[in-house]
Design brief:
This protein is α+β, with helices and mostly antiparallel strands. It has 2 domains: about 130 residues, Beta Barrel (OB fold (Dihydrolipoamide Acetyltransferase, E2P)), CATH 2.40.50; about 300 residues, Bira Bifunctional Protein, Domain 2 (BirA Bifunctional Protein, domain 2, 2-Layer Sandwich). Helix content is about 35%, strand content about 25%. It is built from 14 helices and 18 strands. The strands form 4 sheets. The protein has an 8-stranded mixed β-sheet with strand order 6-10-11-18-17-16-13-12. A 5-stranded mixed β-barrel has the order 1-2-3-5-4. The chain has a 3-stranded antiparallel β-sheet with strand order 7-9-8, with no helix packed on it. Helix 1 packs across helix 3 and helix 9 crosses helix 10. The longest helix is centred in the middle third of the chain and has 31 residues. The radius of gyration is 30 Å and the shape is elongated. It starts with 14 loop residues before the first strand and ends in a 12-residue tail after the last helix. The model has no long low-confidence stretch (mean pLDDT about 95). The structure holds aspartyl-adenosine-5'-monophosphate. The site of aspartyl-adenosine-5'-monophosphate has 22 residues, from strand 11, strand 17 and strand 18. Aspartyl-adenosine-5'-monophosphate binds next to strand 11, strand 17 and strand 18. Its main location: cytoplasm. Pfam families: tRNA-synt_2, tRNA_anti-codon. Catalyzes the attachment of L-aspartate to tRNA(Asp) in a two-step reaction: L-aspartate is first activated by ATP to form Asp-AMP and then transferred to the acceptor end of tRNA(Asp). One of its GO terms (molecular function) is aspartate-tRNA ligase activity. It is found in: Cytoplasm.
Length: about 475
């Protein structure tokens, strides 16, 4: 018989089934034993009516074990019955000794019974095979700290809520990929070993590379832009990015999955935002449809499909809104800080009923050299940040594609054009105007599910003091 996933038991008729998974709890009531068995899809109650085994089998077997000739005299029927009793007794003993986490394979009789709280069904155990034993003491409990849970991430991930996070991630990523593929984007895989920085130099991981030095890619920025003069038109990538960021906030990791897109022939950052919000709309629709009810049950979040278009607010106005709300951001001409982002999002929710907001037209002083500046006002850029439920999840922009302007802007930011020659070459042989965005996957999931840290929504978190497991 093949194994049935626990979530697939419910529609089956009463009858023989095989299930496999790990033991969550054992309730040994002596006259009857209950095991809660869990697999990747759910949990089911197993029952062993042990009474018979203990009362009949125990005595008869021990009697016969003492008197071998009596056993020999038994007729075939009695011997079969005795074997069955032996097996039942062994089963009862095995169940009594099962530690939490033990992996078992079970065959038994499925029975629908409305009185069973867990899913209205149970499986009466015929055979139970211990496939892999667990140590008796589990190193983490429900109330363990997040850090301790991360030490034992493989056990932590057995929680149904953790499992759900990564099912949601799968659906979200799949839907984004489908959006891109349906809209004729090309998927690219850019190298994560680089000869230079692509974002801030301060957050660069350096490593020995044969006789020289290499850097871990902070973003596919340069290479997704390269696809524009390469004539690819529209590209996307979902891949790791690395930042030597020493901060311990709930939203920063040293390695994270970045969702990047870049498209040709944009007229401004508005075209990028439209593509960005449509992709998110498609991905949220898929998540709400597939997991809306489970997310509500597990996290108490009633996830909504974000209405199109998302609100757009220029940074200067965002600063005003936050200031009028009584909060002073650390630098009046700087970016919003986390508290400023929270306040702006709350204002947007109250005034536009939206969980997302594009903050647009950042000052060129706080944007990288490759962002295109406003025509006629070089102090502002054709760029945006996307906030979701009070936190930045993405940065996007139209890029500067005129090589002379690009060189000038690089110099202004203290970068030597010689270091960027390979990148600058992209702009010397014909390049369409273009733009794109980068978005942190774990941040989107954290905010979508109302969780407090990207450590929960990253399969294996990497931070300044965490390189294991
Ligand atoms: P930026 O540096 O703003 O832009 O990054 C884009 C998005 O990536 C996520 N992110 C992070 N997530 C976890 N830990 C980190 N340390 C971390 N750093 C960034 C955030 C952020 O909004 N090249 C540009 C994008 C572009 O213009 O296309 C860039 O990397 O969600």
């Amino acid at each position: 018989m093949t194994r049935t996933l626990i979530a697939h038991l419910s529609p089956l008729p009463d009858g023989p089934v095989e299930v496999a998974g790990w033991v969550e709890t054992v309730r040994d009531q002596k006259k009857v034993q209950f095991v809660i068995l869990r697999d990747e899809t759910g949990a089911v109650q197993l029952v062993n009516p042990a009474t018979r085994a203990l009362e009949l089998g125990g005595e008869a077997i021990s009697g016969l074990d003492r008197d071998a000739s009596a056993a020999h005299r038994l007729d075939e029927r009695s011997r079969d019955e005795l074997d069955a009793q032996r097996a039942a007794l062994a089963l009862t003993e095995t169940i009594g000794g099962l530690a939490h986490g033990t992996m078992v394979r079970v065959s038994g009789e499925l029975k629908h019974d409305e009185r069973v709280k867990l899913g209205g069904l149970e499986v009466k155990i015929d055979t139970l095979e211990v496939v892999s034993e667990a140590l008796p003491e589990t190193p983490i409990a429900e109330d363990s700290s997040l850090d301790k849970r991360l030490d034992w991430r493989f056990l932590d991930l057995r929680r149904p809520e953790a499992n759900l996070i990564f099912r949601v991630q799968t659906t979200f990523e799949h839907a984004l990929r489908s959006y891109f593929v349906e809209n004729e984007y090309i998927e690219i895989h850019t190298p994560k070993l680089m000869a230079s920085a692509s974002e801030s130099r301060a957050e660069l991981f350096e490593l020995g590379y044969f006789e020289g030095t290499a850097y871990l890619a902070q973003s596919p920025q340069f290479f997704k832009q390269m696809a524009q003069p390469a004539g690819f038109g529209k590209v996307f990538e979902i891949a790791p990015a690395f930042r030597a960021d020493p901060s311990f906030t709930s939203r920063h990791a040293t390695e994270f999955t970045s969702i990047d897109a870049e498209i040709s022939w944009v007229r401004s950052h508005e075209d990028v935002m439209q593509m960005h919000e449509q992709a998110l709309h498609a991905a949220f629709s898929a998540v709400v449809e597939k997991h809306g009810a489970a997310i509500e049950a597990a996290f108490g979040v009633s996830l909504e499909i974000p209405a199109l278009p998302f609100p757009r607010i220029p940074l200067a106005e965002a600063r005003r809104i936050v200031a009028e709300g009584g909060y002073e951001i650390p630098r009046a001409d700087g970016d919003l800080d986390p508290e400023g982002e929270r306040r702006l999002s709350a204002w947007v929710k109250a005034n536009h009923g939206h969980d997302f907001v594009f903050v647009t037209d950042y000052d060129s002083t706080i944007r990288p050299f490759y962002h295109m500046r406003h025509e006629g006002d070089a102090s502002l850029t054709n760029s945006y940040d996307l906030l979701f439920n009070g936190v930045e999840i993405s940065t996007g922009a139209q890029r500067e594609h005129r090589v002379d302007v690009l060189i000038e802007q690089a110099r202004e930011k203290g970068l030597e054009p010689e270091e960027l020659e390979f990148y600058l070459d992209f702009f010397r042989y014909g390049v369409p105007p273009h733009g794109g965005f980068g978005m942190g996957l774990a941040r989107v999931l954290m905010l979508m599910l109302g969780l407090s840290s990207i450590r929960e929504t990253t399969y294996l978190f990497r931070g300044p003091t965490r390189l294991t497991p």
